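wait is this the right file?? whatever heres the structure
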């Protein structure tokens, strides 16, 4: 039997890599991890965690305004972006330390440098050190895609948005997905004039059409501008530092900042995957089987670097399943059905299961139940912003196949509702559940 330096060598210490490494070590494996940037990966360092903190900060803009309707007088209000930015980055550093401690407390060796695959069982570190491992796990995640055109180098991505010196007075955001809509809401609440430029005429592809339309309506009411069916032709930096953006349709706008939120691409460049013949799929994602194994028996991959669902909790599940399968003696796969998701827009969206159009195409006969209402808080605050809850049921079985929500705290409510949908409950099961009154969540058991 060949002898290796490690049982497992993980490349990338993001959510999936940390979970896989920690659990593998708990199963008795000798594990090492290489991370060239910061332990924690996209989610913790430059993704969902710091973004959610900015979302919280942005919400105070409306909360302070609404407070006067509830009897509060708030004088001398002001917003300090640098204070929020620095608080967020301090907490990111705290979380990075916790993730590092987790690995070290489980006797996982951490190399703070880049690693490349130099053989089926061999990894070469940036320092030149060569180590061997029985298994190699690739968890390098993905990065923002930046389109190439004259002047595209003047734009930023979500990575840089967390470190801006100042909030731009005007910002153009390219893209129509969740990152574009989330940052549009954030910057709008912080006082920026926001314009979203999208190559199609739809926002948030994959979400139910009713929710997409509602978010567009509310975003327009909040003052966010939209330009559909066009892309960027060029960006020219002006003498005063502003950017002149020219669209393919001929429109021009002067702006302080351009942000690209046009999708993400797997981080596979220079990893050495071609050295060992690892197969790649469309867009450069690593192709894996149901156990996260590539076509090379000793090499696995989990998370956003693969061609599956790009969500942090999914990467964590994949990392756990990998460790249990390879080192725990209990083969496990990840069930990708009924994976809930959220968009932390203003207001947020949450969804699980099939959209109405998907259900009609797949099932034929469906029943749709909706509740279109104003949250009590918005009524008192004289805020004309309506929530929408939608339940999709299989007409033949009464089983719930999809729930879609837009409104305050929708992601928090959806987490529990997703359990019910995953468990295969019916509309009757929801109807038989007594409501918690008064609450927004009670609408789910009162749908007609």
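ok assuming it is, sequence goes like this
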């Amino acid at each position: 039997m060949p002898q290796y330096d490690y049982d497992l060598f993980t490349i990338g210490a993001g959510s999936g890599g940390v979970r896989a490494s920690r659990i593998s070590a708990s199963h008795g494996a000798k594990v090492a991890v290489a991370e060239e940037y910061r332990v924690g990966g996209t989610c913790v360092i430059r993704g969902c965690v710091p973004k959610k903190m900015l979302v919280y900060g942005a919400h105070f803009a409306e909360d302070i305004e609404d407070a006067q309707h509830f009897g509060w007088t708030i004088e001398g209000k002001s917003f300090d972006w640098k204070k929020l930015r620095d608080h967020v980055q301090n907490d990111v550093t705290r979380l990075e330390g916790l993730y590092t401690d987790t690995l070290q407390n489980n006797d996982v060796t951490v190399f703070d440098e880049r690693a490349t695959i130099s053989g089926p069982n061999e990894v070469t570190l940036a320092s030149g050190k060569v180590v061997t491992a029985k298994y190699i796990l690739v968890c390098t995640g993905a990065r923002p895609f930046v389109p190439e055109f004259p002047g595209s180098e003047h734009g930023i991505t979500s990575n840089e948005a967390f470190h801006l010196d100042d909030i731009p007075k005007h910002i153009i955001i390219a893209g129509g997905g969740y990152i574009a809509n989330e940052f549009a809401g954030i910057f709008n609440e912080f006082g920026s004039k926001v314009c979203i430029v999208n190559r199609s005429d739809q926002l948030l592809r994959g979400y139910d059409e009713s929710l997409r339309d509602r978010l567009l309506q509310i975003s327009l009411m909040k003052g966010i501008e939209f330009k559909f069916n066009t892309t960027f032709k060029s960006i020219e930096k002006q003498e005063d530092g502003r950017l002149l953006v020219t669209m393919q349709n001929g429109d021009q706008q002067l702006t302080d900042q351009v942000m690209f939120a046009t999708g993400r691409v797997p981080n596979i460049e220079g990893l050495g995957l071609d050295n060992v013949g690892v197969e790649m799929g469309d867009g450069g994602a690593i192709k894996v089987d149901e156990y996260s194994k590539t076509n090379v028996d000793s090499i696995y991959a989990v998370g956003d670097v693969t061609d599956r669902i790009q969500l942090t909790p999914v990467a964590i599940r994949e990392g756990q399943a990998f460790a249990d399968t390879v080192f725990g003696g209990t083969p496990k796969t990840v069930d990708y059905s009924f994976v809930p998701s959220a968009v932390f827009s203003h207001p947020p969206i949450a969804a699980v299961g099939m959209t109405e159009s998907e259900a009609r195409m797949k099932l034929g006969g469906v029943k749709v139940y909706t509740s279109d209402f104003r949250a009590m808080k918005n009524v008192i605050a004289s805020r004309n912003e309506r929530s929408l809850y939608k339940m999709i049921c299989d007409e033949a079985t009464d089983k719930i196949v999809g729930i879609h929500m837009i409104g305050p705290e929708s992601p928090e409510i959806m987490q529990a509702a997703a359990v019910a949908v995953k468990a295969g409950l019916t509309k009757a099961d929801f109807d038989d559940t007594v409501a918690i009154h008064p609450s927004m969540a009670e609408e789910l058991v009162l749908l007609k």
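The chain has three domains: 6-143+265-326, 152-262, 347-445. so i think its the right one actually
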